[in-house]
Specification:
The longest helix is centred in the middle third of the chain and has 16 residues, at 121-136. Helix 2 packs parallel to helix 8 (207-222) and helix 7 runs parallel beside helix 8. It is globular and about 40 Å long. With 242 residues, it is α/β, with parallel strands linked by helices. The chain has one domain: TIM Barrel. The protein is built from nine helices and eleven strands. The strands form three sheets. Strands 3, 4, 5, 9, 10 and 11 form a six-stranded parallel sheet that branches. Strands 2-8-6 form a three-stranded parallel sheet, covered by helices on one side. The structure holds zinc ion.
């Protein structure tokens, strides 16, 4: 989430608007004041597996500076990840979208403009899917709502639009820019087999994330973890009912 370009008041306002308009939220993944994880039925946030596999995910890109830096590191480490792209950013950087797929990564849909209220949910999903399809010939399958906020009604709409809502189980909290070491610790200390890890390669200056990616991969590999795309993770999920 592009939390740092928004004021706390704006985030709170957006939250209140959604809560008032949509009734109860089924999922409040995190905000500046409530970063706790709420696991919601019908969303994909982890795989049930004993195997030491995890999925690295990067939101809010592609960014012309930070995404290539992240891609270079993933290439060097021979690790594949999933990029939840914004249609708007994809439209401006089609070559990066091509590169992501060419290098074996997966692309997820993160809306077109990152509107937390998702007032034009289907239109934005479709627009983003079109951008990805035009650049790569692949449709998007996983959808991550901006901020991880999704109502029951939106969840149904997303499913009816042929997408799976993919959230996360380990938040690197890189959106807070807490320092490279803290980002690494947030992942390495909370990881578990089947975890989906949240990071960002766009939306704001992501130099801390770029510097944290290598150490995170090394630490996870030292613990015996292997990193896969979300689709690969889903295939290994013994409890997958989606
Ligand atoms: Zn986001």
């Amino acid at each position: 989430m592009r939390i740092l370009v928004l004021t706390r008041r704006k985030v709170l306002f957006a939250f209140l608007m959604i809560a008032m308009a949509g009734g109860l939220l089924t999922t409040i993944q995190h905000s500046l004041t409530a970063p706790s994880l709420v696991r919601s039925p019908g969303t994909y946030y982890m795989a049930h597996t004993q195997e030491k596999v995890v999925a690295l995910t990067f939101d809010d890109g592609p960014d012309p500076v930070d995404s290539p830096a992240v891609l270079d590191i993933l290439k060097e480490k021979e690790v594949r990840a999933t990029f939840f792209v914004l249609g708007q950013a994809a439209q401006s950087n089609p070559l990066l979208i091509k590169r992501i797929v060419k290098e074996g990564h997966e692309i997820g849909n993160h809306s077109f403009k990152h509107d937390y209220q998702q007032l034009h949910l289907v239109e934005e999903m479709d627009q983003t899917d079109r951008e990805v399809f035009t650049a790569t010939g692949n449709h998007t399958y996983f959808y991550r709502p901006p901020g991880g906020l999704v109502s029951k009604k939106q969840l149904e709409t997303i499913k009816n639009n042929g997408h799976i809502v993919a959230l996360w189980s380990v938040d690197s909290k890189d959106w807070r820019n807490p320092g490279v070491k803290q980002i690494v610790d947030n992942v390495v200390k909370n990881v578990f087999p089947g975890a989906i890890i949240l990071m960002h390669d766009g939306g704001y200056h992501r130099i801390q994330t770029v510097k944290a990616v290598g150490p995170i991969i090394e630490a996870l590999q030292n613990q015996g973890y292997r990193m896969v795309t979300l689709s690969e993770l889903q295939k290994m999920d013994s409890g997958n009912k989606l």
